[in-house]
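$ fold --in a.seq
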Amino acid sequence: MAGSVFDSGLYGKLFGAGEAGRLFTDSAEVRAMLLVEGTLAKVQGRMGLIPEISAAAIHRATLEITLDPSGLATATAQNGVPVPGLVAAFRKEMQAPEHAQYLHWGATSQDIHDTGLMLRLRQLLVLLERDLRALLSDLAALAETHAELPMPGRTYGQHATAVSFGSVVAHWGWPLVELVAELEALRRSALWVSLSGAAGTGAAFGPQAGALRAALAEGLGLGDPGRSWHADRGPVLRIAGWLARVATALAKMGEDLVLLTQSGIGELRLGTSGGSSTMPQKQNPVAPSVLIALARQAVALNGALLSAGAPRQERDGGAWFTEWLSLPQLCLCAASAVETARGLRVEPVPGAMAEALELNGGVIHAEALSFRLAEHMGRPEAQAAVKEICKRVAKEGRPLAALAGETWPEVELGGVFDARQQLGEAPGEARGFARAVRAL
């Protein structure tokens, strides 16, 4: 098995991450760091920190020169970070030492590495927002179409009261609506430029340090934090936490789909499913299972990042390396989860839902019966009476509706045993979710 399923020729399509996969390659990382170096030189030239002619030459060269990431491997192993090797290789390829000497002026490796990372994370969030909005549009249509389709609601895996399929879909989608709504604030609080020099003081830039950082932020379209964040991994952790929550929200849908498509329930049908090598009758919920697995991995990776969230002193190699091991995988977990969810085709099976509502003599209507009886007796007495009659249903094998009619002939029981009349706010929740999606 490959070291990562996302890079695997065998498993890559099972855990497909779509366009996001291209953001987490060695080539993409090198390109992002070169973009930072070129923009840094450009703004330094404009501010008179380096010769403007050299700044223009460096900026142009970062757009034209390509570096082979494998050629930087030895230097990266030696230095523990790819930037020194990248700077040396770029200066050599530029073949203009009088200009190349001003490359990386006053910056430190972490400035270039972290800022390049933020450029890629920015693009990741763009892709995820686009795909989440498309997924939400599909879920909204499904919820609205089936807002009043009754099915059993379950708590602790047992029948509770009737819900609507549309409300179940809405419960899958609401967390995603809120996650998309958080993105604007997340971008402001996390997509930051880093430019603080060797130990985070910006001393090499002199009194222009703050202005230079702001200019670099503007040139790259990132936020200016107004401070050093070398040893504050809050921006990374905020993005990582958001990604883990995306994967977890989608896993809720996956968990429900595994249960509702299983043999003996079959209240939902998947448009695509997997087969068994030996059992031709099997229709395995492969995609929902992928969602569950991705979320478990995402939660574990987010935990690893949190464990590295208190770096020692001004820079901590162990903490930083933990980010490199964990964050790209977490990003791809979230991207793969969204990609997988978008590929799902879920269809309700109304007949199976109707049959399930009448299982065990229709005792799913017990709560509705107790509230109707509470109009004629005390609530505790009504609950106790319904408990006793439910025992008779189990013992005698007769429907709850028949026994209730015989026991309380004086009570009007119309609508109590009609699930469509016992949905409460479920249809409204489904339609409210659809409205919220359209308003995003």
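$ fold --in b.seq
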Amino acid sequence: MRPEPTRQANQVWVSDITYLPLANGSKAYLCTSQAMVSNQVVGWHILAAMKHRLIINDLQFNFWTQPPTLGLLVHSDRNSRYCGKVHRKLLHDH
């Protein structure tokens, strides 16, 4: 038997990074986080370089604007930026 999907707001967020091609030929990087129940974007951040700060800033903004529920699950593709010590500590602290 499959468990019932969650119906509580801010219980599951998904996050990913994509690049945005700019008119001058360079790229900007966009990190977004989306709440699964509402399908709303809970936060985003853009940087000119793919750095750990990109997802840290996004996550800090999310916690500030969208208080998570106890047991919040943040899902990502587990690339090196999402597996870094600072990101994991920030998740653990909240």
